[in-house]
Amino acid sequence: xxxxxxxxxxxxxxxxxxxxxxxxxxxxxxxxxxxxxxxxxxxxxxxxxxxxxxxxxxxxxxxxxxxxxxxxxxxxxxxxxxxxxxxxxxxxxxxxxxxxxxxxxxxxxxxxxxxxxxxxxxxxxxxxxxxxxxxxxxxxxxxxxxxxxxxxxxxxxxxxxxxxxxxxxxx
Length: 171
Prior knowledge:
single chain; alpha/beta; 8-stranded mixed beta sheet; 4 helices; 23% helix; globular; disordered N terminus
């Protein structure tokens, strides 16, 4: 994976073998993209189970949760900044290791925390192509990340789209 020096990484769940893109403006934002595994998608969107998008997590350098949100609310940049500044982990099982245990890279290979660059924090963004609020949230996240020139944050974008499951594997 090609990484530009001095680029803040924002990971959308995935391994070091995922696609990486960088924005041209300084500070640049490096994005790592992954997708939920088919098994994780089936569990997430099981019959009669409701799972809203977008879903957002902010994790500290050790992969502990600092902020967890479901759905779209105004002021996400302020909440991300406050949670990262506060640095107080939440009592939640939603760790980076757990998140990564349910994702694969573009080649379908599992991802581990060791595959990611070290960072001050990790923003995990679950999204789907058809989800309009997901696109709005991504814009807000990008805006906040551009303001964190003193932090190295990885934006992990995880595609969570049950419509992409093989026909024979849908519930």
